[in-house]
Amino acid sequence: MNFSYVKAAVFSFALLSIVVVSGSVAEASHSWGTYHWARTSNPFTLKLGDNVSGVWDAHMATSSLDWSVSSVLNTTIVPGLTTARRCKPTKGRVEVCASTYGKNGWLGLAQIWISGSHITKGLVKMNDTYFNTATYNNPNEKLHVMCQEIGHTLGLDHQSTDGSSQDTCMDYFSNTGANATSTRSTRPNDHDYAQLETIYAHLDEITTILSGTLRGAAAPAEAENESDWGREIKRERGDDKKRKESHYERDLGNGNKIHTFVIWAE
Q: Vertex 118, ends 113 and 119: CA angle to 5°?
């Protein structure tokens, strides 16, 4: 599959912008730091490696098309360069994987490798050990998590963490239980696109979206398990006080880091 559409907006840690929508004031400042893909022009195209199968293909395709609505970037689905089970990163792109990774506590995760402020590679992983259970095995929850994890690899953080639906996949709403049939929070909204525009407002003199050897690229490092993710720098809890999502940082030295966003299973 190869889906490439024109869109509007990705990530950058700068500027707080206030956007008025439907008569209410909403905050569009939810970047994942100062991290962004380096590129010399907009819109740029980011490759998503397809290491999924079955129903995940449709959810990956939908999310790719949705993020491509941004005016500053496009995502295109290309053959994966790893396997679903191994799910190793590739420089200059995002590998998207789905497999039964075991009862390790996490439902989905996104990882980005950083050199300075530039993203050099990314991973998205869907844990079918939990998605195959009655709690999570519905198309709306799968699309919510797929859309959110891809959004993290673009540089976006969450819009809200209180569990309410902001009608964006970048919130903490759960499409499970009584909400299993709800399609809310399964796709990006205008605030996500606006934040992407802020993040990618400036151009770089180099690019990190090409495969091959990259100047200043992070040294190879694996970060498969919680023990490999480094220190937990942020934790969000649900109404039951259990951890809902976590953000980890592993410092590789010389300005190179791995950031991991985790959605925990209930």
A: 35
Q: Can you spell out the DSSP letters for 128-161?
A: HHHHTSTTT-SHHHHHHHHHHHHHHHHTB--S--
Q: How far apart are CA 110 and CA 136, in angstroms?
A: 18
Contacts of 91 (CB under 8 A, 6+ apart): 120, 121, 208, 211, 212, 213, 214, 217
Instruction: Give the HSE-up count for residue 249: Cα atoms under 13 Å, Cβ half-sphere.
Output: 12
Residue listed under structure tokens 């859309």 = 147
Transcribe 43-75 into DSSP letters: SEEEEEEEE--THHHHHHHHHHHHHTTBSSEEE
Mean pLDDT of 64-70: 98
pLDDT tens, 161-212?
A: 677 788 899 988 899 999 999 999 999 999 999 999 999 999 999 999 976 5
Predicted structure pTM score? 0.84
**ω before 139 within 30° of 0 (cis)?**
no
For residue 206, list its beta bridge partners.
none
C-alpha to C-alpha distance for 163 and 177, rounded to whole angstroms: 14
Amino acid (1-letter code) at residue 171: D
Q: Which of 149, 179, 177, 151 is nearest to 164 (CA)?
A: 179
227 forms bridges with which residues in the sheet?
none
